[in-house]
C-alpha cells in the first residue's frame, strides 16, 4: 500500500468553501513559513479510500475478539464519547471565570464522590495524567506525611518482585530506597518475606490486588495490618480495577491511598499512548497533602500538572458510571471475572492455566510443557491466532511464567464470542500437533507477519521524508 504522500499528484484537490470574508488575525511575519509545507495533494475520494483501506489493515477492539483486556483497551461505550464531545465540555478554558464553568465543576465533584465511594477513599485529585504519574503523586503523599511528623528515617518502600515495573520506578523517583521482596509462586505476597523487610525505616508498601498474575491475595488484611504496625503506609496500585470495581474497595482492604486509571477501567480509549488520567484517592489524614488545582499554590502543595488534569477523561468516567449505575458497576466487574473464568475452563484440557484456581479478570496459560512436546512457542501460537481473526493475547508476561499467554476478555464479550475464542484455541492446539512448521511461520494471512521487533522498538521509522 502506498503512503498518502506517494499518492499525491500536483494540483489534485477537493471542493472547499469560499474564503471567509471576515477580517482574520494574521500571524506576525516572523512566525510564518517561508515556503509552503510539502503536503500531499489528493482529491476527496482518494483521501477517503486511503483511510478506508488503512482501516481494513488494523485489528482493533472494533474488529474482533481482543483479549488484551482493559489494561490495553476494553470496549468503551460510544455514549461516553458523545458526551465528552459536547461543546460545553470541549469549549472551556482553564482560566474561564468560575461562574461560567459551574457545570464542569459539578462533573468533577460528582466523579470524585463516586470514585471515592468505589475506592473507599475520602478525597481525590484528577491532576495526574497517567497511572505512573498517579503513583508518583500518591507516594509523594506518603513522603509528605512522614516528613510532616518529623519521621525522617522512613526511607524505604517495599515492592513485591511481581509488581508492575512502574511501582519500583515510582518509589525510586520519589527518592525512596526500593526493597524488593520475593513473591510466593502464585504471585501473592510471601508474609514471612514481608515481615523480614518491615522495620522503623519502612515508609510504605506498594501492592496491586488482584496481583499481576490475576489472582486475589487473600491475606490482604494481614498484609496491610503488618505494614501499619511497623509505622508504614499502604499504596494500592489500582491501575486496573476491572476485577473489583464495586465489589471490594482498596480502602476496606487497609490501603491509605491509591490511583485508578480512568483510561483503563473507566472507559477512555488509550491504545497508542493517548491521554490518560490517574485519579489519586486517599484517606482523610492524607488529604491535606493532595495537590490543589490552583495555578499557583502558595501553601506549598505538590503540583503535578496544571489545572484539573485531563478533564475530558473525567467526563467519560462519569458518563460511564452514570450509565452503569450503582447496580451496573459491580455487575460489570463480576461479568469480567465470570468471562475470564469461563474462557479459562473452555480452553483447559488443551492449553493449561498456569494456576489452577479461580482467577479474577484475567488468567495466564503456561505453554512450557506444550512447547517441549510440540516445539511450538507461545509466540507461534500468538501469531497463528492472527490467521483465525483473533488479536493475540499478552505474551511472555508475567515473567514468572516462562511461556506465558495472558488473556483478559473483559465484561462486554458475549458467551458466543467466548465459545468461538475457545474453539479457535482448540483448533490451534491441534494444528500444533499436526503441522508445527506451519505455525513457526504464521501468520500467513496478515499484512505484516513477523517484524524485527527489536529494530522496530529501537529504531522506529515514524516519519515520511520526501525525496529531495
Ligand atoms: C497500566 C498500569 C500501570 C501504569 O499506568 P500508565 O497509565 O500506563 O502509566 C501501573 N500499574 C499497573 C498494575 C498497570 O496495569
Verbal overview:
By secondary structure, the protein is α/β, with parallel strands linked by helices. The protein has 14 helices and 11 strands. A 7-stranded mixed β-sheet has the order 1-7-6-5-4-2-3, with helices on both faces. Strands 8-9-11-10 form a 4-stranded antiparallel β-sheet. Strand 10 (394-395) and strand 11 form a beta hairpin. The two termini are 22 Å apart. The model has no long low-confidence stretch (mean pLDDT 92). Pyridoxal-5'-phosphate (PLP) binds next to helix 5.
Give the tally of structural domains. 3
Tally of DSSP helical segments: 14
Structural class: alpha/beta
* Small molecules in complex: pyridoxal-5'-phosphate
Kindly report the average pLDDT value: 92
Number of strands: 11
The main sheet orders its strands as 1-7-6-5-4-2-3
Helix and strand element order: HHHHEHEHEHEHEEEHEEHHEEHHH
* Overall form: globular
Give the second-level CATH assignment, the architecture of the largest domain: 3-Layer(aba) Sandwich
Strand percentage lies at: 5-15%
Helix content: 25-40%
N-to-C CA distance = 22 Å
Amino acid at each position: 500500500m502506498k503512503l498518502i504522500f506517494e499518492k499525491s499528484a500536483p494540483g489534485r484537490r477537493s471542493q472547499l468553501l469560499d474564503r471567509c470574508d471576515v477580517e482574520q488575525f494574521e500571524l506576525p511575519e516572523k512566525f510564518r513559513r517561508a515556503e509552503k509545507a510539502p503536503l500531499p495533494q489528493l482529491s476527496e475520494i482518494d483521501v477517503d479510500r486511503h483511510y478506508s483501506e488503512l482501516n481494513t489493515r488494523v485489528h482493533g477492539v472494533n474488529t474482533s475478539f481482543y483479549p488484551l483486556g482493559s489494561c490495553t483497551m476494553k470496549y468503551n461505550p460510544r455514549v461516553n464519547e458523545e458526551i465528552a464531545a459536547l461543546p460545553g465540555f470541549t469549549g472551556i478554558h482553564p482560566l474561564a471565570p468560575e461562574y461560567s464553568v459551574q457545570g464542569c465543576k459539578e462533573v468533577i465533584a460528582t466523579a470524585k464522590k463516586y470514585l471515592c465511594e468505589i475506592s473507599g477513599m475520602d478525597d481525590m485529585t484528577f491532576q495526574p495524567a497517567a497511572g505512573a504519574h498517579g503513583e508518583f503523586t500518591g507516594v509523594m503523599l506518603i513522603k509528605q506525611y512522614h516528613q510532616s511528623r518529623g519521621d525522617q528515617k522512613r526511607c524505604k518502600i517495599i515492592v513485591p518482585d511481581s509488581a508492575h515495573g512502574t511501582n519500583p520506578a515510582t518509589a525510586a523517583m520519589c527518592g525512596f530506597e526500593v526493597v524488593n521482596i520475593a513473591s510466593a509462586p502464585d504471585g501473592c505476597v510471601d508474609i514471612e518475606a514481608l515481615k523480614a523487610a518491615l522495620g522503623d525505616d519502612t515508609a510504605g508498601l506498594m501492592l496491586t490486588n488482584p496481583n499481576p498474575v490475576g489472582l486475589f491475595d487473600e491475606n490482604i488484611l494481614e498484609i496491610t495490618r503488618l505494614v501499619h504496625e511497623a509505622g508504614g503506609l499502604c499504596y494500592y496500585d489500582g491501575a486496573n480495577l476491572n476485577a473489583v470495581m464495586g465489589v471490594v474497595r482498596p480502602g476496606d482492604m487497609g490501603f491509605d491511598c491509591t490511583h485508578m486509571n480512568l483510561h483503563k477501567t473507566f472507559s477512555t480509549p488509550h491504545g497508542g499512548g493517548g491521554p490518560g488520567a490517574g485519579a489519586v484517592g486517599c484517606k482523610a489524614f492524607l488529604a491535606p497533602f493532595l495537590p490543589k488545582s490552583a495555578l499557583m499554590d502558595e501553601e506549598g502543595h505538590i503540583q503535578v500538572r496544571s489545572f484539573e488534569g485531563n478533564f475530558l477523561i473525567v467526563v467519560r468516567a462519569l458518563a460511564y458510571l452514570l450509565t452503569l449505575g450503582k447496580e451496573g458497576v459491580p455487575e460489570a466487574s463480576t461479568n469480567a471475572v465470570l468471562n475470564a473464568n469461563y474462557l479459562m475452563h473452555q480452553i483447559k484440557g488443551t492449553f493449561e492455566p498456569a494456576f489452577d484456581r479461580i482467577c479474577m479478570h484475567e488468567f495466564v496459560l503456561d505453554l512450557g510443557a506444550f512447547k517441549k512436546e510440540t516445539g511450538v512457542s507461545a509466540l507461534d501460537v500468538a501469531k497463528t491466532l492472527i490467521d483465525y481473526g483473533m488479536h493475540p493475547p499478552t505474551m511472555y508476561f508475567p515473567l514468572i511464567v516462562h511461556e506465558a499467554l495472558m488473556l483478559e476478555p473483559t465484561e462486554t464479550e458475549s458467551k458466543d464470542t467466548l465459545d468461538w475464542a475457545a474453539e479457535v484455541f482448540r483448533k490451534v492446539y491441534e494444528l500444533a500437533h499436526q503441522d508445527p512448521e506451519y505455525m513457526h511461520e504464521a501468520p500467513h494471512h496478515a499484512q505484516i507477519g513477523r517484524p524485527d521487533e527489536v529494530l522496530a522498538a529501537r529504531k522506529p521509522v515514524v516519519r515520511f521524508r520526501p525525496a529531495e
